[in-house]
Amino acid sequence: MWLAIDIGNTNIHIGLFDKDILHSTYSIKSTFPEHAETDFNKILNKSTCCNIQTVIISSVNPETEMFLVEYIQKKLSIRPKIVKKDILIPITIQTEQPEKVGTDRLINALAAFERTRNWTIVIDAGTAITIDVVNDKGAFVGGIIAPGIDISSKALHQCTSLLPEVSVKKPHSVIGKNTEEAINSGIYWGTIGMVNRIVNMVCDEIKCHPAIIATGGNANILAREIPIITNVCPNLTLEGIGIIYKKLGLNKISDS
User: Fold this and answer.
1) Which of 6, 20, 86, 104 is labelled catalytic?
2) 104 is catalytic
3) Of the residues 108, 155, 211, 245, which has the maximum number of CB atoms within 10 A of its CB?
4) What is the pLDDT of residues 70-84, one digit of tens each?
């Protein structure tokens, strides 16, 4: 048994693997050390933590990563392996500054290509929205980064004097009849339109019709409105960590 942990800016996703099989998944807020420590402790107790041999972490949140590494070392007496720091991601990166590409983007690309074995666009609709391209050889070509739905709502509220922060959901009509409805419609349809337009522009640029996979907390919203999205994979990053574990034979590496 081993744990894959994906630390994002908003949430921490945890996968319990039995060898190569993703056995169960959990999600908690990235709010260490406040409430998440209690939630994580409950997960470890459910996961029969005495049987866990390895912990692999992918992170885009250094502060939470630092706390979680120390917590796991204390709780499980295991030194977690950090993707990119302790473990190389087995993927070719065709960008100008490969070392600066986000770990989550590369892991998602690896997992997506494992599914498709062809040109693929990966849309990660989380705190930020990333739209990344993998070619037919499995190389990470590059991509696009844009604000996510929740960030857009917070930015309008925080950068203006009078606009409220709204919880975005599908509007009843495009034209809002009050300020909240207007913001909701603008963010919802603006995000849908942006992603749809960018994906079509990418398809034109690469001159093919790739598989299009969505993941992240708002993936279902995008997939509902953008028919060219072929698949929603909520656990894509955890799957990618599992692929790294298998490809690099990490089950043979000592955790001492």
Assistant:
1) 104
2) yes
3) 108
4) 989 988 899 999 999
